[in-house]
Design goal:
The protein has about 375 residues and is α+β, with helices and mostly antiparallel strands. It has 2 domains: about 260 residues, Aminopeptidase; about 110 residues, Alpha-Beta Plaits. The chain has 9 helices and 17 strands. The strands form 4 sheets. A 6-stranded mixed sheet has the order 1-2-6-3-7-15, sandwiched between helices. α1 crosses α3 and α3 crosses α9. The longest helix has 20 residues. It is elongated, with a radius of gyration of 23 Å. The protein starts with 8 loop residues before the first helix and ends with a helix. It holds the Pfam family M20_dimer.
C-alpha cells in the first residue's frame, strides 16, 4: 500500500467532476489555461516548485510541478486538453453517473488520469510522504493535436530521468496498461489542376479531384496489416461546382507504423507522390509526429513492478500494445523506461459514449502513487 492516503473513489470522483465540467478543447488556450490555473493553485498550496511555460497563440500553457530533491527524477505526464468542442457538456454529453460509469467529455481521455497524477503529487506533498526519487509532474495543453508546443518541454524535463509514467486511460475491459505503441504521423496533400467548362471545354481542364483520387488509392495501398502499417485519408475536399472541372483538391493523411524503419519507408513513399506532370501539381507536407514506442526490458521491469502493486490492490494489470500514440512515445524513444496507460479504466475515447469505471479511481490512484513513492 502507498504511504500516502489517497482517499475514496467517491471523494476522487467528486473533485474530478470539476475538471470534467470545465470544457477544454485543444483549440481554446484560455479554456485549457483555466483548468491549469486550478491545478497550479492546488500544487502551489502544498509547496510544489512551479514553472509554467506559455503556449503559442493556438495552444495553452504547459504546467511543470516538482517535488524537492536531487538526482534522476520520476516524470509523470498527462494532458488536460480534449477533442470535444464547447457546448457538448450542455448538449449531447452531460456529466452524469450511471451505476459504476461516470460520463462526460474527456473524462476517459484523459482527465481522470491527469487528475489522478495531480492528486497523487499534491497528496505526497501535503502529507509529507518520503519518496525514493524526486517527482516532476507535467500537465500539457495540446496532446490531442500532436503536442506541438509541449513536446519540447516533455523531452527537456525527461532528459536523464529514471522513469516516465503516463496516466493515459487504461485499455479494454480488463484495464490494460501500455508497454509499446505505434508511431504516428500525418500529411497534407494539395493538388492543383486547371479549371474548364465540364461540357464545352472538358479537354482543356485538368481535374484535381481525379488526380487526388488516384493518389488516395496509392496511399491506401501502403496499408499492410501484417507489417503493422495503416494509412487513412480523411477529410477530403475538392471542386467547386458539378459543371466545372475542379482546379483544386486535397486531403489529410494519417499513418501508423510499428518501427522507425517502417516510418522511413512510408514517409518516403508518400513524399515521393509529390511533383508535377500533365498539368497537375501535387504538394505534400508533413511527416512522422510521434516516433514508435518500443517495448524494452527496462519498460517491462516497470510493468512488472506496477503489476505486483496492482495485485496487492486486488486487481490484475494486463499489458497491451496500442496503435494510437501518446506523449510516452517521445520519452520511450529517448531510451527512458516508460510505462503508459496507467489511468482509469473505461471506454469510448473520442466517442459520445465516453466514460470511466469510477470505482477504479481509488485503486488505480493508489497504484500510481505507490509507483511514485517506490521506484528506486
Amino acid at each position: 500500500m502507498p504511504a500516502t492516503e489517497i482517499g475514496t473513489a467517491e471523494r476522487l470522483l467528486d473533485e474530478l467532476r470539476g475538471w470534467v465540467e470545465r470544457e477544454t478543447p485543444s483549440t481554446d488556450p484560455a479554456a485549457v489555461n483555466g483548468l491549469l490555473d486550478v491545478a497550479e493553485a492546488g500544487l502551489r498550496a502544498v509547496g510544489a516548485g512551479i514553472v509554467r511555460y506559455p503556449g503559442s497563440g493556438r495552444s495553452g500553457d504547459t504546467l511543470v510541478a516538482k517535488t524537492p530533491g536531487e538526482g534522476p527524477r520520476i516524470i509523470i505526464a498527462g494532458h488536460v486538453d480534449t477533442v470535444w468542442d464547447h457546448g457538448v457538456l450542455a448538449g449531447p454529453m452531460p456529466y452524469r453517473v450511471e451505476g459504476e460509469r461516470a460520463h462526460g467529455p474527456g473524462i476517459y481521455d484523459m482527465k481522470a488520469g491527469s487528475f489522478l497524477a495531480f492528486h497523487c503529487v499534491r497528496e505526497i506533498l501535503r502529507q509529507g510522504t518520503r519518496t525514493r526519487r524526486p517527482i516532476t509532474l507535467l500537465l500539457t495543453p495540446d496532446e490531442e493535436v500532436g503536442s506541438p508546443t509541449s513536446r519540447g518541454h516533455i523531452e527537456r524535463e525527461a532528459e536523464g530521468a529514471r522513469a516516465v509514467l503516463i496516466p493515459e486511460p487504461a485499455g479494454g475491459l480488463r484495464g490494460s496498461c501500455v508497454t509499446s505503441r505505434k508511431g504516428t504521423g500525418s500529411f497534407t496533400v494539395q493538388v492543383e489542376g486547371k479549371s474548364a467548362h465540364a461540357g464545352g471545354n472538358w479537354s482543356e481542364g485538368r481535374s484535381a479531384v481525379v488526380a487526388l483520387a488516384r493518389l488516395i488509392l496509392e496511399i491506401h495501398g501502403l496499408t499492410d496489416l501484417e507489417r503493422g502499417v495503416t494509412t487513412n485519408c480523411a477529410p477530403i475536399w475538392g471542386g467547386t461546382r458539378s459543371n466545372v472541372i475542379p482546379p483544386g483538391a486535397g486531403c489529410r493523411v494519417d499513418f501508423r507504423v510499428p518501427s522507425l524503419a517502417e516510418a522511413e519507408r512510408v514517409v518516403a513513399a508518400i513524399r515521393g507522390l509529390a511533383g508535377e506532370a500533365d498539368g497537375i501539381r501535387v504538394t505534400i507536407t508533413g511527416g512522422l509526429n510521434r516516433p514508435p514506442f518500443p517495448e524494452t526490458p527496462a519498460g517491462l521491469a516497470l510493468y512488472e513492478m506496477a503489476k505486483g502493486i496492482a495485485a496487492r490492490h486486488g486487481y490484475d494489470l494486463p499489458r497491451q500494445h496500442r496503435g494510437g500514440g501518446s506523449d510516452g512515445n517521445f520519452t520511450a524513444v529517448m531510451g527512458i523506461p516508460t510505462l503508459d496507460g496507467l489511468g482509469c479504466g473505461g471506454a469510448g475515447a473520442h466517442a459520445p459514449e465516453e466514460h470511466i469505471r469510477w470505482p477504479e479511481l481509488a485503486p488505480r490512484g493508489a497504484v500510481l502513487c505507490e509507483l511514485l513513492e517506490s521506484i528506486e
